[in-house]
Design brief:
The protein is built from 5 helices and no strands. It has about 90 residues and is mainly alpha-helical. Helix 1 runs antiparallel to helix 2 and helix 4 crosses helix 5.
């Protein structure tokens, strides 16, 4: 495991924990761009399920990230989509 990649992931987790719409969106979009891979797919899906914010740009970022997860990891993502905590708009 790359220590720098892990350090950046922890930074992104802090953004995704925020209550600020654009901080969360930043974390989600960066996770989508750099962490949807074999090593992090489970973490990404878990975080997409944890995020709960009413902001339009958060919901759209999560939906976008999940679409990329599905393209790269269709079975894992489909399993997640069958059992998730997404709001109806994001789903």
């Amino acid at each position: 495991m790359d220590k720098n990649k892990k350090r950046v992931w922890l930074f992104l987790e802090d953004r995704m924990k925020s209550d600020k719409e654009y901080e969360i969106r930043f974390g989600v979009v960066m996770a989508m761009a750099h962490y949807i891979d074999e090593e992090y797919i489970d973490n990404v899906l878990q975080w997409m399920d944890r995020i709960s914010h009413e902001g339009y740009y958060v919901k759209m970022a999560v939906a976008w990230a999940l679409s990329v997860c599905y393209v790269k990891f269709p079975q894992k993502t489909m399993n997640y989509l069958k059992e998730n905590h997404l709001d109806d708009f994001t789903y």
